[in-house]
Amino acid sequence: MYWGFLVSNLKPECILICLQIARAFGASDIIAVDIHDEKLQKAKSFGATHTVNAIQEDAIEKIREITGGLGVDVAVEALGKPQTFLQCTQSVKDGGKAVMVGLTQSGAVGEIDINRLVRRKFCELSCSSQ
């Protein structure tokens, strides 16, 4: 099972928690995506099996390559930006789950392909502490 994490702006302890949750839910492979090599190295040291620097390469393309063209079973977006929202939804395989936990400014809009959501049995989840 592949899990993908967009880990920008997460503190090291949050990255560790995310990776532990992925392992607890059966992830055999964990892909961490960020734009900072230091954070990717930290994610790797905490157990990520793959890292993707989204500045140096197309994150969606690289995730598809790593997963044999399928995409991840579960993607977690923890930044709260429209671009990472879109990357998260596009990195999930058919029937997979995208979990949105990143917060953003009020009124920010994220796009999603409606046909993909409906026809490919893709599931988008959001989490809130409120």
Automatic annotation (TrEMBL):
The name under which this protein is listed is: Uncharacterized protein
Q: Say which species the protein is native to.
A: Pistacia atlantica
